[in-house]
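Feature request, filed as a ticket because there's no other form

It would be nice if the structure record came with a short human-readable summary line next to the tokens. Right now we just get the raw output. Example of a typical job, pasted below so the devs can see what we mean:
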Amino acid sequence: MELRLLVTFEKVATVLSFTRAAAELKYAQSSVTSQVRSLESSLGVELFERLGSRIRLTEAGERLLPYARRIIELSAEARAAVVEAEEPAGTIAVGTMESLTSYRLPPLLELFHHRYPKVQLTLRPTLGDETRQALRQGTYDVGFLMERETEHEGLETEVLAPEPLVLVAGPGHPLARRTGLTGADLAAARLVGTEPGCPYRDLFEEELREWAPPFMEFGTIEATKRGLAGGLGIALLPRVTVSEELASGALVELDWEPPFTLVTQIAWRRGKRLPAHVRLFVEQARRLVREESAPSRG
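Raw output as currently delivered:
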């Protein structure tokens, strides 16, 4: 079995689309189809069922997929061991979310841009379930998760930092002058949030489920903060995302303590042999995110 055929098969099996696989591999779709058929011919089995415009793996394809991934990973590891490049090189597909990309990861991204220019980082904006599934499938090399859970089936995870949450509003909001706020108080206010699926938005909504209040969705954290500063409502956000606004007085912290906590962690597929440049990324993420989140002394 040729390695290039296995690489193509693994990509098609991961995305379940010849068209998308061709785009990601930068092949013509006819080349992808031809390579999969060549592999099927050499093995004497069909690897995909064609269901109109959709495809799915056959039983033989399901059995081949984990072996294909192991062979691809071993090939990359062998190349790295033999070549011993003077500086780290390779690509890393990283699943992450806006609050982490914008507020936790800049030092890490800057480090790799300036010190390791041959490492190409591709950031994929996804939320929890989608990130975890992409890691299991091998679409992402590593992922950053912000959530309560610290263990997931099929994944290796490492907690990097706690993520304190804070309820905030504009300084002129009526709740800004009140103490001892209750769930009913919050539900009666206009709630502003990012999109559903965001972990702190979902937990906040669950906490207020008794009142089932509607949320005004702004999509991004920056848009949410501008809406809050303009007096449009209140929102629960990670403290790291609003630290500058709280310091400047553009936003104020409301007197309510979330009954749940979140952590930021890094994850990769369990059993995956991480290439040297990916191990370096994990090591530097561990160091920099922990340094950035550590309470200042002095």
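Something like this underneath would help us a lot:
The chain has three domains: 3-83, 90-163+263-293, 165-260.
The chain has a mean pLDDT of 90.
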